Amino acid sequence: MGFLSRILRTRKTNQPDSRVSGVGASAIPEVESPASAHGAAEAMEAELRKTERRLATLLDQLPYVILYETGGGREYISRNIESLLGYTAEELTQDRTKFPELIHPDDSEQVDRQIRAWNEAGRPLGFIQQFRARKRNGEYIWLEDRITSVNHPDGKRGMIGVMVDVTTQHAAQERYQAIVEAADVAGLGLCILVAREQMGTILYINQAAVDICGRTREELTGQTVTQYVPRDLLPPIEELWQQFLRGELLRGSFESEVLHKDGHAVPVSIGLCPTMLDGEPVVITFLTNITERKSTEAELVAARIEAEEISRLKSNILSNFSHELRTPLHSILGFSSMLAEELQQDDLREYSQSIQRSGQRLLSTVTSIIEISAIETTPTQRILYPTLLHETLEEALVEFRPAIAERGLDFILDLHAQDVIVLIEKERFRKALEKIINNAIKFTHSGLVHIALTEERKVRVPGGPMEDRALIRIRDTGIGMSQEFTEKAFEKFKQESSGFSREYEGTGLGLPLARNYIKLLNGEISIQSELGVGTEVTISLPIVGRVDAED
């Protein structure tokens, strides 16, 4: 234990000689015999060894390892080095090259360079170094060695090292650094705030956050965060900081602004995460530059306002268009009807009737255009009433019987589900039937129009629950449609035959209007058709109740 002995001996020799008595020039030292002096020396040596053992025991109980060297190698290592690396203190002190060989090759050069620079500078004060060391079992751990220079009793400049295992802390630092680097790569600003004199002081800030502020890391570190927030946005942030000081701040996020160095405000999304760092409460703040998003939102708002204005203008135009066209058309139809009754000549009567038919056709076209435009541009109010579907269907179909009979077609009505109740608005329901049945009559030269009411139990509606549905199937034996056109049948102004040579009149708005009306009634509509065979349109409505058969 040369190291401990020298410490103790140095302490003893530096003490005043207790054998000197008296004051001033008359003080005469006590003269000892050689035998008594030898006995005193042995007693002091025994006391020294006893104290040395106590000191060694104390050092071995510390949670860290003590090293001592004079420049020629480590003279002393506390015995708890064995629990750290698996090597005994004797193994590492007897072979002075042993410990340097345990340092990881990637860290060895850095350790040597740091010690060499310290030696060349005359070993001033001390320094801290971290490196990996290999245990006896081959596993590497991270060690932190705090080096302090000391004066050796023989005049040499020595050093004492205090070495601890920092593997866990180093792993945590690596994970933390990985998070910081990942945040930088993702452009996510990261700022750690700590309470300094009750203010939020920037303890650490990454490069992404620095870029948002337009300043350097040196300019920001140690500054209060509030000086980089517009004054009118300070109150909510100051309140959040007070919540943090009271221990009430929860994780959350909000939007604010950060003042850029050039003076403009940068909109940011701020996420807050209160936690502990090195035993001190801090707030980890995540900053995301949302300038682009805010710009997009502003553009969307402007576009919405513009669209609403266009819609309003369109509604006004449609209203004027409806009035300006329908008023003269009604006059034309009225006077042409009067002429047809008053005129006696057959050819003139035929002319007036042709005017009336053309006027009816034009009125129907204008009405369809106005209706579909109004549905698409004006918010539609719906007032739906519970209705016994088969009765409503029978009432609506009465007006179509004459037209079907005029065409010489058979009309079959099968109303099986007579107890189902649905929610509908009768006028829109009637208009939807009108568009579908008029198409069936127009495109069927012979055969029949078949309307059936059935139901389907436990149908899964897309995005909704299982429910019972009422089904209205309108089938004709007309010309039908190709499969290609069937997929486009509900698109506006679509007709399978088009141009001046087309055989059938129409604007291609019948089925699109029917679909819009049925959707307003919370229903669905579909179509199946085969060219030369006929077409079947199916309306599906949710059943909301049933009536008893006795009612």
How are the elements arranged and paired?
Layout: H1 2-13, H2 34-61, E1 65-69, E2 74-77, H3 81-85, H4 89-94, H5 98-102, H6 105-120, E3 126-134, E4 140-151, E5 157-165, H7 167-185, E6 189-196, E7 199-205, H8 207-213, H9 217-220, H10 234-245, E8 252-259, E9 265-277, E10 280-289, H11 291-342, H12 346-377, E11 385-388, H13 389-397, H14 401-406, E12 410-415, E13 420-424, H15 426-442, E14 448-460, E15 466-476, H16 483-486, H17 510-520, E16 524-530, E17 534-546
Parallel strand pairs: 12-14
Antiparallel strand pairs: 1-2, 1-5, 3-4, 4-5, 6-7, 6-10, 8-9, 9-10, 11-13, 13-17, 14-15, 15-17, 16-17
Q: How would you characterize this protein structure?
A:
With 551 residues, this protein is of the alpha+beta class. It folds into four domains: 62-163, PAS domain (Beta-Lactamase), CATH 3.30.450; 171-289, Beta-Lactamase; 294-377, Helix Hairpins (Orthogonal Bundle); 385-546, Histidine kinase-like ATPase, C-terminal domain (Heat Shock Protein 90). Helix content is 44%, strand content 26%. The protein contains 17 helices and 17 strands. The protein has helices spanning 2-13, 34-61, 81-85, 89-94, 98-102, 105-120, 167-185, 207-213, 217-220, 234-245, 291-342, 346-377, 389-397, 401-406, 426-442, 483-486, 510-520, and strands at 65-69, 74-77, 126-134, 140-151, 157-165, 189-196, 199-205, 252-259, 265-277, 280-289, 385-388, 410-415, 420-424, 448-460, 466-476, 524-530, 534-546. Strands 11, 12, 13, 14, 15, 16 and 17 form a seven-stranded mixed β-sheet that branches. Helix 1 crosses helix 2 and helix 11 packs antiparallel against helix 12. Mean pLDDT is 80; it is low at 7-29 and 498-502.
